[in-house]
UniProtKB/TrEMBL annotation:
SUPFAM superfamilies referenced in this protein's UniProt entry, alphabetically: Bet v1-like (SSF55961)
Domain Phosphatidylinositol transfer protein N-terminal: 3-243
UniProt name for this protein: Phosphatidylinositol transfer protein N-terminal domain-containing protein
Matching InterPro entries: PI_transfer (IPR001666), PI_transfer_N (IPR055261), START-like_dom_sf (IPR023393)
GO molecular function, one term: phosphatidylcholine transporter activity
Lineage top rank: taxon: Eukaryota
Cellular compartments per GO CC: cell periphery; cytoplasm
Signal sequence interval, chain numbering: none
Protein backbone atom coordinates (compact mmCIF):
# COMPACT_ATOMS: atom_id res chain seq x y z
CA UNK A 1 0.00 0.00 0.00
CA UNK A 2 1.39 3.39 -1.03
CA UNK A 3 1.94 5.78 1.88
CA UNK A 4 0.66 9.32 1.30
CA UNK A 5 1.33 12.16 3.72
CA UNK A 6 0.65 15.87 3.47
CA UNK A 7 3.18 17.98 5.33
CA UNK A 8 2.16 21.51 6.27
CA UNK A 9 4.95 23.94 7.12
CA UNK A 10 4.05 27.45 8.29
CA UNK A 11 6.75 30.09 7.69
CA UNK A 12 7.27 33.65 8.86
CA UNK A 13 7.68 35.18 5.38
CA UNK A 14 5.65 36.03 2.31
CA UNK A 15 4.91 33.65 -0.57
CA UNK A 16 7.07 35.85 -2.82
CA UNK A 17 9.98 35.82 -0.37
CA UNK A 18 9.78 32.06 0.04
CA UNK A 19 10.49 31.49 -3.66
CA UNK A 20 13.89 33.17 -3.30
CA UNK A 21 14.55 31.79 0.18
CA UNK A 22 13.89 28.20 -0.91
CA UNK A 23 16.16 28.35 -3.94
CA UNK A 24 18.91 30.00 -1.91
CA UNK A 25 18.66 27.40 0.84
CA UNK A 26 18.71 24.51 -1.67
CA UNK A 27 21.94 25.87 -3.20
CA UNK A 28 23.62 26.37 0.17
CA UNK A 29 22.57 23.06 1.72
CA UNK A 30 23.62 21.15 -1.41
CA UNK A 31 27.17 22.39 -0.88
CA UNK A 32 27.05 21.33 2.77
CA UNK A 33 26.20 17.77 1.71
CA UNK A 34 28.75 17.31 -1.05
CA UNK A 35 32.30 15.96 -0.97
CA UNK A 36 34.37 12.79 -1.07
CA UNK A 37 32.76 11.45 -4.23
CA UNK A 38 29.22 11.92 -2.94
CA UNK A 39 26.59 14.62 -2.92
CA UNK A 40 24.63 16.53 -5.54
CA UNK A 41 25.35 16.61 -9.27
CA UNK A 42 23.29 19.18 -11.22
CA UNK A 43 22.84 17.97 -14.80
CA UNK A 44 20.17 20.40 -15.99
CA UNK A 45 18.77 23.70 -14.76
CA UNK A 46 16.74 25.44 -17.45
CA UNK A 47 13.39 27.15 -18.12
CA UNK A 48 10.50 25.04 -19.44
CA UNK A 49 7.27 25.80 -21.25
CA UNK A 50 5.37 22.57 -21.94
CA UNK A 51 2.49 20.40 -20.71
CA UNK A 52 3.59 21.08 -17.12
CA UNK A 53 3.15 24.82 -17.67
CA UNK A 54 5.95 27.36 -17.33
CA UNK A 55 8.77 27.43 -14.83
CA UNK A 56 12.28 26.12 -14.10
CA UNK A 57 13.23 22.49 -14.72
CA UNK A 58 16.09 20.82 -12.86
CA UNK A 59 17.60 17.36 -13.17
CA UNK A 60 19.92 16.28 -10.37
CA UNK A 61 21.71 13.10 -9.38
CA UNK A 62 22.27 12.40 -5.69
CA UNK A 63 25.26 10.17 -4.95
CA UNK A 64 24.29 8.71 -1.57
CA UNK A 65 26.13 5.44 -0.88
CA UNK A 66 27.15 6.25 2.71
CA UNK A 67 23.81 7.89 3.58
CA UNK A 68 21.43 5.03 3.00
CA UNK A 69 20.54 2.53 5.74
CA UNK A 70 22.78 -0.53 5.82
CA UNK A 71 19.98 -2.95 4.91
CA UNK A 72 19.57 -1.12 1.58
CA UNK A 73 23.31 -0.77 0.96
CA UNK A 74 23.74 -4.53 1.29
CA UNK A 75 21.15 -5.17 -1.42
CA UNK A 76 22.68 -3.07 -4.16
CA UNK A 77 26.12 -2.43 -5.66
CA UNK A 78 27.74 0.82 -4.55
CA UNK A 79 27.61 2.19 -8.10
CA UNK A 80 23.80 1.92 -8.01
CA UNK A 81 23.26 3.79 -4.75
CA UNK A 82 22.09 7.04 -6.22
CA UNK A 83 18.82 8.88 -6.74
CA UNK A 84 17.70 10.86 -9.76
CA UNK A 85 15.54 13.94 -9.19
CA UNK A 86 13.42 15.75 -11.73
CA UNK A 87 11.71 18.94 -10.59
CA UNK A 88 9.28 21.31 -12.27
CA UNK A 89 9.22 24.57 -10.35
CA UNK A 90 6.20 26.45 -11.68
CA UNK A 91 5.96 28.52 -8.51
CA UNK A 92 3.73 28.65 -6.49
CA UNK A 93 3.08 25.05 -7.58
CA UNK A 94 6.03 22.65 -7.77
CA UNK A 95 6.42 18.96 -8.51
CA UNK A 96 9.41 16.74 -7.76
CA UNK A 97 9.97 13.10 -8.70
CA UNK A 98 12.73 10.95 -7.20
CA UNK A 99 13.64 7.61 -8.81
CA UNK A 100 16.40 5.02 -8.62
CA UNK A 101 17.96 3.51 -11.77
CA UNK A 102 18.73 0.35 -9.77
CA UNK A 103 15.14 -0.09 -8.52
CA UNK A 104 13.42 0.91 -11.76
CA UNK A 105 9.63 1.15 -11.44
CA UNK A 106 9.72 -0.43 -7.97
CA UNK A 107 10.77 2.82 -6.30
CA UNK A 108 9.39 6.33 -6.58
CA UNK A 109 8.90 9.35 -4.36
CA UNK A 110 6.67 12.11 -5.67
CA UNK A 111 5.94 15.32 -3.90
CA UNK A 112 3.78 18.17 -5.02
CA UNK A 113 3.92 21.49 -3.27
CA UNK A 114 1.61 24.49 -3.16
CA UNK A 115 2.70 27.70 -1.47
CA UNK A 116 -0.20 29.67 0.02
CA UNK A 117 -0.49 32.89 2.04
CA UNK A 118 -2.28 31.30 5.00
CA UNK A 119 -1.63 29.59 8.36
CA UNK A 120 -1.92 25.97 7.27
CA UNK A 121 -5.72 25.72 7.50
CA UNK A 122 -6.51 24.80 3.88
CA UNK A 123 -7.79 21.21 3.87
CA UNK A 124 -7.05 20.61 0.19
CA UNK A 125 -4.56 23.18 -1.05
CA UNK A 126 -3.37 20.84 -3.82
CA UNK A 127 -6.86 19.89 -5.05
CA UNK A 128 -6.16 16.20 -4.46
CA UNK A 129 -8.90 13.76 -5.56
CA UNK A 130 -11.15 12.11 -2.98
CA UNK A 131 -9.36 8.74 -3.11
CA UNK A 132 -6.06 10.44 -2.23
CA UNK A 133 -7.66 12.46 0.56
CA UNK A 134 -8.96 9.24 2.13
CA UNK A 135 -5.44 7.78 2.29
CA UNK A 136 -3.66 11.02 3.19
CA UNK A 137 -2.19 11.59 6.63
CA UNK A 138 -1.71 15.25 7.60
CA UNK A 139 1.55 16.10 9.39
CA UNK A 140 1.99 19.63 10.74
CA UNK A 141 5.55 20.86 11.20
CA UNK A 142 6.50 23.59 13.66
CA UNK A 143 9.94 24.81 12.58
CA UNK A 144 10.57 26.51 15.93
CA UNK A 145 9.59 23.67 18.24
CA UNK A 146 9.93 20.37 16.33
CA UNK A 147 13.25 18.72 17.11
CA UNK A 148 15.71 18.32 14.21
CA UNK A 149 17.78 15.16 13.86
CA UNK A 150 20.92 17.20 14.60
CA UNK A 151 20.50 20.35 16.67
CA UNK A 152 22.48 23.47 15.75
CA UNK A 153 22.07 26.65 17.79
CA UNK A 154 22.67 28.87 14.75
CA UNK A 155 19.81 27.10 12.96
CA UNK A 156 17.25 27.49 15.77
CA UNK A 157 14.31 29.79 14.86
CA UNK A 158 13.29 29.98 18.52
CA UNK A 159 16.43 32.04 19.29
CA UNK A 160 17.27 33.61 15.90
CA UNK A 161 16.39 37.25 15.21
CA UNK A 162 16.82 38.73 11.76
CA UNK A 163 18.74 42.02 11.67
CA UNK A 164 17.36 42.93 8.23
CA UNK A 165 13.66 42.16 8.85
CA UNK A 166 13.29 42.15 12.65
CA UNK A 167 11.58 38.75 12.45
CA UNK A 168 12.07 36.18 15.18
CA UNK A 169 12.66 34.66 17.56
CA UNK A 170 9.67 32.38 16.91
CA UNK A 171 8.09 31.72 20.31
CA UNK A 172 4.92 30.19 21.73
CA UNK A 173 1.97 30.17 19.29
CA UNK A 174 3.96 32.07 16.69
CA UNK A 175 2.19 30.29 13.80
CA UNK A 176 -1.10 31.92 14.83
CA UNK A 177 0.27 35.45 15.25
CA UNK A 178 3.36 36.01 13.06
CA UNK A 179 3.30 38.44 10.15
CA UNK A 180 3.99 37.93 7.33
CA UNK A 181 2.92 34.30 7.06
CA UNK A 182 2.68 31.55 4.42
CA UNK A 183 2.39 27.76 4.33
CA UNK A 184 4.07 25.08 2.23
CA UNK A 185 1.63 22.24 1.57
CA UNK A 186 3.64 19.19 0.49
CA UNK A 187 1.78 16.07 -0.63
CA UNK A 188 4.32 13.24 -0.56
CA UNK A 189 3.72 9.78 -2.06
CA UNK A 190 6.33 7.12 -1.27
CA UNK A 191 6.32 3.80 -3.11
CA UNK A 192 8.80 0.96 -2.63
CA UNK A 193 7.78 -2.40 -4.12
CA UNK A 194 10.05 -5.09 -2.70
CA UNK A 195 8.63 -8.13 -0.94
CA UNK A 196 9.48 -8.21 2.76
CA UNK A 197 10.91 -4.68 2.84
CA UNK A 198 8.09 -2.46 1.57
CA UNK A 199 6.66 -1.36 4.93
CA UNK A 200 10.09 -0.90 6.49
CA UNK A 201 11.48 1.20 3.65
CA UNK A 202 8.37 3.34 3.15
CA UNK A 203 8.43 4.11 6.88
CA UNK A 204 12.13 5.03 6.60
CA UNK A 205 11.42 7.27 3.60
CA UNK A 206 8.76 9.29 5.40
CA UNK A 207 10.89 9.59 8.52
CA UNK A 208 13.73 10.92 6.36
CA UNK A 209 11.37 13.31 4.51
CA UNK A 210 9.98 14.59 7.82
CA UNK A 211 13.48 15.27 9.16
CA UNK A 212 14.50 16.90 5.88
CA UNK A 213 11.56 19.33 5.95
CA UNK A 214 12.24 20.26 9.59
CA UNK A 215 15.96 20.85 9.06
CA UNK A 216 15.58 22.63 5.75
CA UNK A 217 12.97 25.12 6.94
CA UNK A 218 14.83 25.84 10.16
CA UNK A 219 17.87 26.70 8.04
CA UNK A 220 15.79 28.73 5.60
CA UNK A 221 14.46 30.99 8.36
CA UNK A 222 17.80 31.37 10.12
CA UNK A 223 19.45 32.32 6.81
CA UNK A 224 16.98 35.20 6.32
CA UNK A 225 19.69 37.86 6.41
CA UNK A 226 21.60 36.03 3.67
CA UNK A 227 18.78 35.69 1.12
CA UNK A 228 16.63 38.72 2.00
CA UNK A 229 16.79 41.30 -0.79
CA UNK A 230 18.01 38.87 -3.47
CA UNK A 231 16.16 38.68 -6.80
CA UNK A 232 15.39 35.64 -8.97
CA UNK A 233 18.17 36.85 -11.30
CA UNK A 234 20.58 36.80 -8.34
CA UNK A 235 19.42 33.27 -7.52
CA UNK A 236 19.95 31.97 -11.08
CA UNK A 237 23.51 33.33 -11.04
CA UNK A 238 24.07 31.69 -7.64
CA UNK A 239 22.71 28.36 -8.94
CA UNK A 240 25.07 28.41 -11.93
CA UNK A 241 28.04 29.06 -9.65
CA UNK A 242 26.84 26.41 -7.18
CA UNK A 243 26.61 23.76 -9.93
CA UNK A 244 30.29 24.36 -10.72
CA UNK A 245 31.24 24.31 -7.04
CA UNK A 246 29.34 21.06 -6.46
CA UNK A 247 31.20 19.28 -9.23
CA UNK A 248 34.53 20.32 -7.71
CA UNK A 249 33.45 19.44 -4.17
CA UNK A 250 32.23 16.01 -5.20
CA UNK A 251 35.70 15.17 -6.52
CA UNK A 252 37.56 16.13 -3.38
CA UNK A 253 37.51 16.14 0.42
CA UNK A 254 35.44 14.12 2.83
CA UNK A 255 31.71 13.53 2.79
CA UNK A 256 29.84 16.05 4.94
CA UNK A 257 26.54 14.81 6.27
CA UNK A 258 24.68 18.00 7.10
CA UNK A 259 20.93 17.62 6.57
CA UNK A 260 19.07 19.73 4.06
Amino acid sequence: MVVIKEYRIVNNLTVEEYQVAQLYAVAQSSKNETGGGEGVEVQKNEPYDNEHGKGQYTYKVYHLASRLPSFISKLAPASSLMLHEEAWNGYPHCKTVLTSPFMGDKFKIVYETMHVADRGTNENALNAPKDVLKKRQVVKIDVANDKPDKYKADEDPSIFKSEKTGRGPLKGDWQKTCEPVMTCYKLVTAEFVWFGLQTLVESFIHKAVHNLFINFHRQLFCWTDQWYGMTIEDIRALEAKTAQDLEELRKQGEVVTAAK
